[in-house]
Amino acid sequence: MDGVSNDRKPYFVSWKDAQGQMQRIRRTPPPKLHDINAGDEATLDRRLGDDFPSGTNVDIEPSNPRHPNILKLKNENGQTTFVPYFDLTGKVRRFREVDGERVAVENQSAGSDEYIDSSYLEWP
């Protein structure tokens, strides 16, 4: 499905343990489970806090690639909050850049899983 990025570039995390030894592990971000991208807009149908009441129009901002299923929302006042993609209930308006122009894409549910290949669930 267009717009779903499965770029899961590994990264390393380093820290000092209780004995003062440096520890290092390799992590891989989880796969992106939604088709919501930075630049899309949404209207909240439930309250997310005092600054984000129901009916608020929010913009989806770029978020950390290490946490692709957490969305950064920004309201009209410039205030931001972070929510898991499945908590973004309401009308999502998707936009893509085509030839340098911002074009609306047909609307789907916010947590659409249609792009996941489920052929392994079918009987032979």
Describe this entry's structure for a reader.
The protein is extended. The strands form two sheets. Strands 6-5-4-3-7-8 form a six-stranded antiparallel β-sheet, with no helix packed on it. The mean pLDDT is 80. The chain has a domain at 32-111. It contains no helices and eight strands. With 124 residues, the chain is mainly beta.
Strand content: 35-45%
Strand order of the largest sheet: 6-5-4-3-7-8
Query: Share of helix among residues?
Result: under 10%
Overall pLDDT metric: 80
Shape: extended
Q: Unreliable segments (pLDDT under 50, ≥5 consecutive)? A: none
Largest sheet: 6 strands, antiparallel
Instruction: Spell out the helices and strands N to C.
Output: EEEEEEEE
Q: Structural class, judged by helices and strands? A: mainly beta
Rg, Cα atoms, Å: 18 Å
Distance between the termini: 25 Å
Total E-strand runs: 8
Determine the number of helices (DSSP H or I, runs of at least 4 residues). 0
What does the secondary structure layout of this molecule look like, with pairings?
Elements: E1 11-16, E2 22-27, E3 41-44, E4 57-61, E5 70-74, E6 80-84, E7 90-98, E8 101-105
Antiparallel strand pairs: 1-2, 3-4, 3-7, 4-5, 5-6, 7-8
